[in-house]
Amino acid sequence: MKMLVLINPISGTGKQKGVAELIKKTLDADRFEIEIRETEYAGHAILLAKEASQNGFDIVVAVGGDGTVNEVAQGLLFSQSSLAIIPCGSGNGFARHLGISCNPKKAIHQLNESVSASVDTLQINDFISINVSGIGYDSYISHIFAKMDSRGLSSYVKAIWSTYFSYKDRKYTLHIDGEKQNFDAFMVSFANSSQFGNNAFIDPNASLQDGIFTVNVIKKPHLYEVPYLLFALFAKKLPSTRIYQSFRCKECLIIQPENMLHVDGEPVVSDKELSIQLKNNSLKVMIPKNKVGVI
Predict the structure, then answer these.
(1) What CATH code would you report for 127-280?
(2) pLDDT digits over 94-135, tens only?
(3) Which alpha helices (DSSP H) does 59-201 contain, by range?
(4) What is the pLDDT of residues 152-181, one digit of tens each?
(5) Is there a contact between 209 and 120 (Cβ–Cβ < 8 Å)?
(6) What fold characterizes domain 2-113?
(7) Which of 129, 156, 193, 219 lies in disulfide reach of 97, CB 3.0 to 4.6 Å?
């Protein structure tokens, strides 16, 4: 099988350094014929992945964080080439959902015995989301986080601590499968898979193959409610409460007061009106053989 490996040299936590040599030593040479390239600028992986799909590559491997994975996915959408992942980011939400190890060497061993499966994606106006995207506070945090000097969970917590008390609920209008509802919300997330990253689960029961996604509406918790909310996120036990509501749907139209959005954790400037539509079986991904039928 022809495989193109795309390495983002400045992505995430720096785990990608040395991955090229690790791939050459560990990847099954009898199964894969590999070519390795580094991306050179934002959006470059989209172009390289699209060219690879047009030139007969069976697999394109994203070596980097969630942003790199998203770019490669964009380039492979509706093609016969499969996305593979060697996670090297700070959150790795999509890879974790797929059961891919965040240890590069283990991820390569999994890739040696992986299989291809078709999954759903989300289209949010002109953007493609494969994991979890959203508006409100988490989008605001993603814009701050992108400007910080260091990455990782500790920096994310620092960004939250410095802004949490001043950020208030906003008014949102949602048309969920055509049904209009108004909400005062702290954040609204659109979940194609189960978690933001770092095993913080916004929709523990999410499937990439069920033809639906979830809209998750979260009100700002009182300070005494924050520990419970954090526990529930990491324990996969988010219940419907005053704080949290979840809606399963195939499409959603949202009117928001701001023009900020994060797409799989990456901050972007968006329209205030967002159309979210599920694209069924629109992307092929390589998954560990023990995850067949359970993603």
Answers:
(1) 2.60.200.40
(2) 999 999 999 999 999 999 999 999 999 999 999 999 999 999
(3) 66-76, 93-97, 104-112, 137-145, 153-163
(4) 667 778 888 889 899 999 999 999 999 999
(5) yes
(6) Rossmann fold (3.40.50)
(7) 193
